[in-house]
Design goal:
55% helix; five-stranded parallel sheet; 7 helices
């Protein structure tokens, strides 16, 4: 038997050993990171006494806006920004859907219709906070979205103090997420977005013009 094929196979094994190990380690890191992310999200609870200069809620579900309006009604903050409002949605529609008292809406609620994504939410919220001189915000969004939203807003306004206020929709069961395929898919999608955003924020920060 010729020794040349044996040597060739050995060389191929040596050539692919390091990349194979790196790939395996990367996969293990991704799995562990996802499990850590999912567990972190599943353990999120609203703070007992959330207070700040103002409140920012990111659109994406009626429960988010209702929670933010309730906090404003309880005088947890002086003003509320609803970020990412559809340009076609009127003030009256928002008041009706969230049962916000009209006088409270008129005096203390601002609407951001420019933001199209989480990066835009962060940029617009930071500009709004700077315009009003706010140094602390209660950030209201879904629990699964909160890690990425907090990171984006911290990147847009590093000196801002954030009070995270997670909202969990009734139909989204997080306590036993690992038993629910729909929840697993949602968490996986958000984990990918969070990981990509984390790499971007750590390298280039918040994109200009967003």
């Amino acid at each position: 038997m010729s020794v040349e094929p044996v040597r060739r196979r050995r060389r191929l094994r040596k050539r692919w050993w390091i990349p194979g190990c790196l790939l395996a380690l990367s996969l293990v890191w991704l799995v562990v990171s996802f499990l850590s992310f999912a567990e972190r999200v599943s353990q999120m609870r609203p703070p007992a006494d959330p207070r700040a200069d103002a409140i920012v809620v990111l659109t994406g579900g009626q429960a988010r806006i209702e929670s933010a309006v309730a906090l404003l009604s309880e005088q947890r903050a002086r003003r509320l920004l609803i970020s990412g409002v559809n340009p076609g949605t009127t003030d009256k529609q928002i008041i009706a859907r969230t049962t916000t008292p009209q006088d409270l809406f008129a005096c203390c609620v601002d609407l951001d219709r420019k933001a199209l994504n989480t990066i835009g939410n962060a940029s617009e919220a930071a500009l709004w906070a700077k315009e009003h001189g706010f140094t602390s915000l209660v950030l209201v969004t879904s629990a699964y979205h909160l890690p990425r939203a907090s990171m984006e807003l911290n990147a847009a306004m590093p000196d801002l103090r954030l009070v995270a206020y997670p909202v969990v929709a009734e139909e989204l069961q997080l306590d036993d997420w690992y038993l629910r395929p729909r929840t697993i898919r949602l968490l996986l999608r958000e984990f990918v977005k969070y990981t990509v955003a984390r790499v971007r924020v750590s390298t280039i920060g918040l994109p200009d013009g967003e």
